[in-house]
Amino acid sequence: MRYRHLAAALSCALIFGCSSTEDVVPDIPPAELYVEAQKSLREGNWVTAVDQLEALDSRYPFGPYSEQVQLDLIYAYYKNDELALGLATIERFTRLNPTHSKSDWVLYMRGLSHMAQDRNFLHDVFNIDRSDRDPEPVKKAFADFKRLVQRYPDSAYAEDAALRMVSLKNRLARYDLATADFYLRREAWIAAINRCQEIQKTYPNTVAAKESLDIQLKAYKELGLEDAIARTEKLIEINQL
């Protein structure tokens, strides 16, 4: 995240005064400002686009461009990694326009925004696996995409949403696998087994479900449960075919 507003606030400490968005964006007619905002969006100048769209939204909240400005803000906030602002705009837009023709797109953007909250720039740069980090944004994203597929099966975004659900399901399964491994290392054998069985039940067609069998087998061996050991070894053999 670029922390645009934070950077601007810090810059203010170095000078005598600080201009707000209202001061930065010229006070020009809304039609002209809207055209400028669209130009910034097309050019991928997300910071400027956000400034212009926020100015339009605050100066003309009930103007002829109000709905489209909010839709554009949702997209610009997402592209500018201002996810909290984007989600707040989505909630406001949905509350005011529950039957809007672009409701499927808004729901799709909510899913993308929640999904992006699970992303960490440093993790990507250094290729760090953080399967154990809080998956709450992932659960929200999965619910958003699931709702989109169910409510708008013919939407242009439904197919991509379904594909993203597969990725999110794997992410959630890896989190549970990391939890099962944590229990195993803490010698909480029953807790490890229960979590493994939950993975196999909830996410049966994932790599994590197969890998959970190894953790389950180790826990059963520690408990000396011969029948359970034999069943688990058979499942591992079947999944290797």
From TrEMBL:
One Pfam entry name: YfiO
Keywords: Cell outer membrane, Lipoprotein, Membrane, Palmitate, Signal
Primary location: membrane
Domain Outer membrane lipoprotein BamD-like intervals: 27-235
Compartment(s) of residence: Cell outer membrane
UniProt keyword annotation of Membrane present: yes
Superkingdom of the source species: Bacteria
InterPro entries assigned to the protein according to its UniProt record, in alphabetical order: BamD (IPR017689), BamD-like (IPR039565), TPR-like_helical_dom_sf (IPR011990)
Membrane topology type: Lipid-anchor
Alphabetical list of PROSITE patterns matching this protein: PROKAR_LIPOPROTEIN
Family: Belongs to the BamD family.
Oligomer and partners: Part of the Bam complex.
Role summary: Part of the outer membrane protein assembly complex, which is involved in assembly and insertion of beta-barrel proteins into the outer membrane.
NCBIfam families per the UniProt record, alphabetical: OM_YfiO
Protein name: Outer membrane protein assembly factor BamD
Organism name: Vibrio ulleungensis
Taxon lineage: Bacteria, Pseudomonadati, Pseudomonadota, Gammaproteobacteria, Vibrionales
